[in-house]
Design a protein that fits this description.
Length: about 100
């Protein structure tokens, strides 16, 4: 998994294609990431008790990681990630400007 919580990502497919946002949650099991403010779906909640009103809540649906591209904080471009290994420490780097991410 190349994407981490807190990363800025760009969405490549779907209705929010081309938009970017911050990763708020990563699900390693399903290879999906939830991006803040994107891929919003409205969920209708039925009233639980009589007299209560039903509500519409907004839910951020997770997106497949393969449909996301990381946005490099140094050059601001959507990029692929490379790794630089330095004395057993692995650093993620931007493939375009080689800045650590
Ligand atoms: Zn870069």
């Amino acid at each position: 998994m190349k994407i981490k919580k807190g990363d800025n990502v760009k969405i490549l497919t779907g209705k929010d294609r081309g938009k970017s946002g911050k990763v708020v949650n990563v699900d390693f099991k399903s290879n999906k990431a939830t991006v803040e403010g994107l891929n919003i779906f409205k969920k209708h909640v039925r009233p639980k008790r009589q007299g209560e009103k039903g509500e519409v809540v907004q839910v951020f649906r997770p997106l497949a990681v393969s449909n996301l591209m990381i946005v490099c904080p140094a050059c601001g471009k959507a990029t692929r990630i490379g790794y630089a290994v330095d004395k057993e420490k692995k650093t993620r780097i931007c493939k375009k400007c080689h800045a650590p991410i």
